[in-house]
Design a protein that fits this description.
The complex is a heterodimer of chains A (224) and B (312). With 224 residues, chain A is an alpha+beta fold. Chain A contains five helices and 13 strands. The longest helix of chain A has 17 residues. Chain B is α+β, with helices and mostly antiparallel strands. Classes of the chains: A alpha+beta (224), B alpha+beta (312).
Chain lengths: 224, 312
């Protein structure tokens, strides 16, 4: 574990440099401990794959004070992990015009489209972090057989709710944005809706499962 | 109680102190590009330091007020007029109902801030009125202002709490700026001489730069361990360097995370200077220590103290 400065108003606590559930769990645990400690002057705490960025006001909290506090949190015997939230289940209408790259992923994996769907829906994925746009969760790990790399040319517009694969990562586009992931389906559920009581569907550390729905179910899904 | 847009200008947006607290959910902070001038404008009209104000970019707007208001302009020097008569910069002035405020010729700097006593009352999203245009969040319908928009305003405070004009406003860069950086957070991803290269000559801000980031053209920075990292957080003012070796300075609307190594970070006290630059302008980087960075920030705070002294 190392603590590095990112300018005068942010520090980054870095754990082992790899994408790994245990490393990511340490980052998320530290982030929530720092968040709960409500340290004066801390403006934002951002866990990522293997690190935690802590944004602070250096006129309210000195760097040394903050790093001492972080060391204190790291040294504390970790509390019993809170009962993990039950996996979040996200409906997906796979293939067709809602999943225009499903055929390509099937060709990549040399299996049928149905088998791609079965393998994607069989996984339980960890939300390693959120980034890119509001509510976008980087999830893994996708079955190696269907872990197709990003498209050579990204799309200018990926529709909201598109479910994609990029190597061993999977994710749901929370807004219409450019994007290069292989689109295998679409969900009627919004990962981000600022008007909702809980605007964000996912947070780092969550577990997610996808399940197939028909085109009719997709069309009539109650928008929560 | 509205502020009506007659002509929108090039990119006029509602900004407040920024959408803090949601970067862990991928929500960009946004907020003013020159946070110092933004604070000064608010202080001059007696607003809270984070009250929503307008950020005016390069080509200014023409606005009409439907009630009497105290307003102030800070930041970039525009020839601003009220019904044809010149108005001062960095000083509060009264706008009467029906008067037209016009931003004319720009003399120096890229972004000005117009604060209105009471503040702009567009609906907050996730606790902030800052506009993030790319994700269509906050501000006025999540976008830059257009002709015909009517911005809601909070009631003007009963007591006039304006400040005296600022005698010596912060110096504005004239299309060229020197800003200080602290090394890191990923200095070890670069060749030993990369920090020297960064300081060796000015970088030009490319035309494809915006509120998300300034794409820079100048001495290339050599990676030592490849141009990809495991994505991590991207602070304001960080210099991320893709495979091309040409750095990108991340600004107010940056994404919350990124996958390029970051060689250095512009210090907080100097980001307002960077925020006064635009495409074609040049920027020079000088490495400094954390102590210098904090000292510069304290000096800035001292300068603002008499202006903000009325704040509870």
């Amino acid at each position: 574990m190392t603590i590095v400065s990112a300018g005068d108003s942010a520090i980054v606590v870095e754990f082992e440099e790899r994408i790994d559930e245990a490393v990511n769990a340490r980052a998320i645990a530290l982030a929530s401990a720092v968040q709960q400690a409500a340290v004066r002057g801390v403006r934002d705490v951002v866990p990522t794959f293997h690190a935690v960025a802590i944004y602070f006001d250096p006129l309210r909290t000195a760097y040394t004070e903050l790093t001492a506090r972080i060391q204190h949190e790291l040294d504390r015997p970790s509390a019993e992990p809170a009962a993990a939230r039950a996996p979040l289940r996200i409906p997906v209408c796979y293939g067709g015009d809602l999943g225009p790259d499903l055929a390509d992923v099937a060709a990549f994996a040399r299996i049928s489209e149905d088998e791609v769907v079965r393998r994607h829906a069989a996984g339980t994925y960890r939300v390693f972090m959120l980034g890119f746009v509001a509510g976008f969760a980087y999830m893994g790990t996708v079955d190696a057989s269907i872990a197709m790399p990003r498209r050579a040319t990204p799309r200018i517009r990926v529709p909201l709710g598109s479910v994609g694969i990029a190597g061993v990562q999977t994710g749901v586009y929370p807004a219409e944005t450019p994007g290069g992931w292989q689109l295998i389906g679409r969900t009627p559920v919004k990962p981000f809706d600022p008007a909702r009581a809980e605007p964000f569907l996912m947070q780092a550390g969550d577990h997610v499962q996808f399940f197939p729905i028909t085109r009719q179910e997709y069309a009539s899904w109650p928008s929560a | 109680m509205a502020l009506c847009v007659i002509k929108p200008g090039m990119l006029t947006t509602v900004q407040d102190g920024g959408r803090w607290g949601y970067q862990s959910r991928g929500v960009p902070v946004a907020g003013p590009m020159d946070s110092l001038s933004f604070r000064i404008a608010n202080a001059l009209v007696g607003n809270a330091r984070d009250a929503a104000a307008l950020e005016v970019t390069l080509l200014g707007p023409e606005l009409e007020f439907d009630d009497e208001r105290i307003v102030a302009i800070a930041g970039a020097e525009f020839d601003a007029t009220l019904d044809g008569r010149s108005v001062p910069l960095h000083a509060p002035f009264i706008v009467s109902a029906g008067a037209r405020l016009k931003f004319g010729q720009r003399r120096r700097g890229a972004r000005a801030y117009l604060a209105v006593a009471g503040g702009i009352a567009t609906p907050p999203v996730l606790g902030s009125r800052a506009t993030h245009v790319i994700s269509a969040m906050g501000g006025f319908d999540g976008r830059a202002l257009r002709a015909g928009d009517a911005l809601p305003l909070f009631a003007a405070p009963g007591a006039r709490t304006t400040r005296a004009p600022l005698v010596s406003p912060p110096a504005l860069p004239d299309r060229d700026a020197r800003v200080r950086v602290m090394a890191g957070p990923q200095r070890d991803y670069f060749a030993a001489d990369a920090l020297d290269a960064l300081q060796s000559a000015p970088y030009t801000i490319r035309p494809d730069s915006d509120r998300m980031g300034f794409r820079l053209q100048g001495p290339p920075l050599t990676h030592a361990r490849g141009a990809d990292i495991i994505s991590d957080a991207t602070p304001l003012g960080v210099l991320q360097v893709p495979a091309s070796g040409q750095p990108i300075l991340l600004m107010a609307d940056r994404q919350t995370t990124g996958g390029y190594p970051k060689i250095a970070t512009v210090i907080t006290a100097d980001m307002p200077i960077a925020g006064q630059l635009g495409p074609g302008d040049t920027i020079r980087f000088v490495v400094c220590t954390a102590q210098e960075a904090i000292a510069a920030l304290i000096a800035q705070e001292r300068m603002l103290m008499p202006l903000e002294a009325h704040e509870a």
